[in-house]
């Protein structure tokens, strides 16, 4: 039975809205100027003024590939074979399984035209040429791919149209993909500017591929797509995952020197410009009134942005949060999230609803009147009620995951981290000698996660630990029939403790 057969529809009154989700890359809560950011982001400020800010929204993971999986499937990434880190090689096969429901396939079943423009990073099913060896001048990965043959791309996951790149802007091959085929066969070896100077991550590239042109290309293709939908009788879904401000930090020539905080700020401003181009296209085509547009990001700011230098200039990418990308701390996964839908959302509002971006799946289902299949969106709870009334904060608990595979569970004001450190890139990564193996914080009183209450509230630790085990065992965190995780024995892991040097 196909996906459509697994879904039953109960039509909602009124016209179905267009839906756009813009997903920035490595951007913290303090990177927008309507919070504390020093780089002007007028178009995101406009979205916040005309829509709703989510003050407590989180990615499912503090790194890229897994958080994108959670967004599109409504299922926690740690239920998959990817238990830590991200896809970094072109040979990595698709993380979304064949026939697995996505937001795109759900909306497509309800009559939507579906498109993605930008960065995929969930695995491309390239045809690998066995035994292929690089020829002279062919440096780095990506030369063993048969680019002539069709690949498994987003068009296998419910998207009618794809124009973009396979992974991050610093991961070869550097080539644009249209639907399921590379636009140009790579013919040169290229790399990207390294954080420490020089060129890094050299690999197969199309001769005309330039990293600092990607945002302009994505903006152009997105506007073209929106223009094409003006006279369509079908609603559309556009997923726009950007490559910025992730490394390489390469703003185009037009944006160099525009911000007061350097290239990172310039890249933030160009990211904001893409948002502005989308808003202008909606206005020009008179589509804004019934379009739900959401902006968010796949995890917090990366230390590759040189956070200390930015802070000296008065720019705090993580705001008052602890940590950054890769960490289990709030700076790793609490992200700026804004929604605008003039027909539904009251302008200038905020919601404190505890939200995981995995909730996007169930939200789209409720908007379109779809009853989700038992295996679909198993960790997703619709935030449509909160869009209508920001005071409705009915979400119970959510789970977050660090780059190294450590868990945290949040319920109400309480957060339990199943590790003793950041479990990412912040120090200490592991529990210091003599410290508790886990961390418990009350975020209402201690948003910066400075006081570990693990020893003071054993009953709270026990309660949250039990809930986490229940979510793992049931294969879901929402009501419904028990499901299987893709791997057996999903574990909270054992904390590796550093031995104390203190002599007995």
Automatic annotation (TrEMBL):
Residues 473-504 are annotated as: Disordered. Residues 17-370 form the Sulfatase N-terminal domain. One of its GO terms (molecular function) is metal ion binding. Residues 495-504 have a biased composition (Basic residues). It comes from the Bacteria. Keywords: Calcium, Hydrolase, Metal-binding. It holds the Pfam family Sulfatase. InterPro entries: Alkaline_phosphatase_core_sf, Sulfatase, Sulfatase_CS, Sulfatase_N. Belongs to the sulfatase family. This is Arylsulfatase.
